[in-house]
Every structure is written in C-alpha cells, then in structure tokens.
Amino acid sequence: MTATPALGTPQLASPDLLRSAFRRHAAGVAVITAPGENGPVGFTATSLTSVSAEPPVISFGISTGASSWPAISRADHVGVHVLGEHQRELATTFARSGADRFGAPTAWTEGPEGVPVLDDVLAWLVCRIVARVPAGDHRVVLAEVVLGDPTGAGRPLLYHQGRFTALRD
Questions:
Q1: Is the whole-model pTM more than 0.70?
Q2: Domain count of the chain?
C-alpha cells in the first residue's frame, strides 16, 4: 500500500506550470524537416508521437510562431528523424533560432518527395501530412508514414530538465 502524496499548494494552470511539469517528463528528440520555398527548413521536436499502426500515423506539435511553420503549413510531406545520443549538437542547431540548420556540419541529402533526410540518425521517416489541427498557439500535425529506415545504430537522445541527455544504465 502506498501513501497518498501531500498535495501541497496547487498552482493554477499557466504556461509556467505546464513547462515546469514537462521538464520532469523525459522525451525522445527528433528533427522534423521539410522542403521550403527558399531552401529546406527544420526544427527540433520533443512532441513526436506514434498515433496509429494501421495506417501508420505519427504526430508532432509546432508553434505557429516558429520559423519553420510557414513551410510546414504548406508542405505535403515532412521528414522525421529520431536522433541518437551522439547528436546533441545537431539537436541544438535545429532548436536555435536563426541558425544555419542545413549548413556545415549538418550532413543531409534530398530524399523522396524533396524532403531533406539527415545522415547518421537512429531512424528516419518520410511522411505525408494528413491534417494540421489547431491547438492554442501550436498546430498538431498528423502525418502518414510513407517510407523510411529504422536501422541506424546507437542509443536515443533524450530531453529532460531543459537539456539534451542520454539514457543511463
């Protein structure tokens, strides 16, 4: 039998409450990419979720204020890249506003449907966008998996307590 935790003083819902609670939630790290009118776009996401196996559908969230949003809002396809613990610098680059995300040292190629595919990731998928659902200042993007490669080597990169980290044994 476990004891009921002391509730303390509850906080009213706010962006700060949400951020504080989710700093305690470890999440996998992915980079979402898409072709854009002025070159490829991409961003780091910790909101990647498997939604359905039949058909294979994933989701991720993106702020409507993000520099990648205009391209994602028009794209038919996106790339989804599961990052390994060796890719902290790549995750940081794609999370940083104003960074040259596809310049050196980022290694990538143009993949199917014109989607930028990053090198040396644990897994990558090309997905067809099927819906963009309004959710406050974000959109939840639903996308059906078209093809990919899940055979990259390594251990996953995680985001926890406001930083990129690795699994501990």
A1: yes
A2: 1
